[in-house]
Amino acid sequence: MFNINMRLNVKKFLTLAIFACTISFSTPICAEEFEVPKDYELNSIEAYADLEDEIILACDWLINNNITTNIVKAKEVNTFYLKWIIGSPNVSVNVREEFVPTDKKMGQAAIIFMTGWTKYALETRDFKNESAGVIAGIEALITHYKINKDSIGEIEKIEDFIKLKEDGKLKEFVDDVLEDL
Question: What is the pLDDT of residues 124-180, one digit of tens each?
Fold first, then answer.
């Protein structure tokens, strides 16, 4: 009996350990863990490249941030991201009204969209695919919206995006809109 219980306890322990590792490696960085770099300069192509990993973390932080908390830190992360994206030699983001809600309840919509696109571009090194960038931006909006929906209420445009994604039609929608522009 002791051996059976011992095996069960070991199995439980290993299962919990594997679960904990999976969670820690598969979820975005915790909001409290990301710190905006200090004393950085954006005066060369190399300086932008050197900050790419931090920009990906900043994008994750902004996308996954609850807007009712971390307000001061959100401003710092926004500023860091915006300074970087404005001069980035590789990442170029187009914000179009067809893809970004203008509802004041989600005032961060354009930045969240941009961070999704930026994260996609940096992780895949696909800097030219506008359709994939837009889809990544919309998916970032959906993620951020779901986290903050209780605070901001329903936003029809994002609800429409969620439905398109669930129906497997988001790419088709994005491609149709881009084709018409």
Answer: 999 999 999 999 999 999 999 999 999 999 999 999 999 999 999 999 999 999 999
**Cα–Cα nearest to 174, from 72, 94, 74:** 94
Cα–Cα separations (whole angstroms), residue 95 to 42, 100, 177: 23, 7, 13
Residue 17: φ, ψ to 5°: -65, -45
Nearest Cα to Cα of residue 81 among 97, 93, 69, 67: 93
CA distance 176 to 169: 11
3-state secondary structure the chain: CHHHHHHHHHHHHHHHHHHHHHHHHHCCCCCCCCCCCCCCCCCCHHHHHHCHHHHHHHHHHHHHCCCCCCHHHHHHHHHHHHHHHHHCCCCCCCCCCCCCCCCHHHCCHHHHHHHHHHHHHHHHCCCCCHHHHHHHHHHHHHHHHHHHHHHHCCCHHHHHHHHHHHCCCHHHHHHHHHHHC
Question: Position 134: which residue type?
Answer: V
Locate 47 and state its tokens.
């300086």
pTM above 0.85, yes or no: no
Q: Which amino acid is at 70?
A: N
